[in-house]
Amino acid sequence: KQEVTQIPAALSVPEGENLVLNCSFTDSAIYNLQWFRQDPGKGLTSLLLIQSSQREQTSGRLNASLDKSSGRSTLYIAASQPGDSATYLCAVRPGGYQKVTFGTGTKLQVIP
Amino acid sequence: GAGVSQSPRYKVTKRGQDVALRCDPISGHVSLYWYRQALGQGPEFLTYFNYEAQQDKSGLPNDRFSAERPEGSISTLTIQRTEQRDSAMYRCASSGKAQETQYFGPGTRLLVL
User: Fold this and answer.
1) How many angstroms separate the Cα of A46 from the Cα of each of A33, A38, A43, A102, B62?
2) DSSP B26-71
């Protein structure tokens, strides 16, 4: 059974700081991994999708990396802004199946 | 274009009643997922459709939960004889093809009294 862990559960940083969010998974036989952000009371917004054959994906100030063999992914946020404050979730899709497993999220607060 | 929509946004019901939650995916998306999300947790997979075929229902907690997508577009998640433990946010997502980026709807918050 795939287990996905995100550490830390909460993080508070001053505006402008670069930061890294972590996602660990127990079964390395994954098809892809997706990072989402969730704002309070809102739905989930897709940020980046990394296929198992890729090592990283970039979108603006966001960079996600994937190390399948060690069961880890990181989301790097450059020059953080107060608008980045949200809960960040990673979701792992196994090969050949559609049962996506989500982590419990990291709640990020960027202080102006 | 329009995103994933869900209705109702909020549903309050009494224990023992049946509820039906609706999901309208992005037009043309063949894959549709249902999730349940408890407060402070990530979404938990319930079931998956490829077109009208329900290909994975391994996440449905028990036989009171069922889902359908008869024409390969709109989907309905039905909970029979609701219990207080069914209270949660129910989320729907769609993707253009299997294993592509998922796009989530706003969710339906269900409260069972």
Assistant:
1) 11, 9, 10, 13, 29
2) PTT--EEEEEEE-TTS--EEEEEEETTEEEE-TT--STTEEEE-TT
Write the pLDDT tens digit of every residue in B38-91. Answer: 988 899 999 999 999 999 999 999 999 999 999 999 999 999 999 999 999 999
Chain A segment 30-59 residues within 8 A of B by beta carbon are: 31-32, 34, 36, 42-46, 49
pLDDT tens per residue across span A8-66 = 999 999 999 999 999 999 998 898 999 999 998 788 999 999 999 999 999 999 999 99
User: In which residue are the tokens 């001053």 written?
Assistant: A14
Q: How many CB atoms lie within 10 A of CB B105?
A: 23
Amino acid at A88: Y
Residue A82 has phi, psi (to 5 degrees) of -55, -30
Beta bridge partners of A30: A94
Q: Does A99 touch chain B (CB under 8 A)?
A: yes
- How far is it, in rounded angstroms, from Cα B65 to Cα B62? 6
Question: Residue B82 has what DSSP assignment?
Answer: -
Residues belonging to chain B with any Cβ–Cβ distance to chain A shorter than 8 Å: 31, 33, 35, 40-45, 48, 50, 55-56, 58-59, 91, 93, 98-107
Bridge partner list, A107: A10, A87
Asked if B41 and B88 touch (Cβ cutoff 8 Å), the reply is no
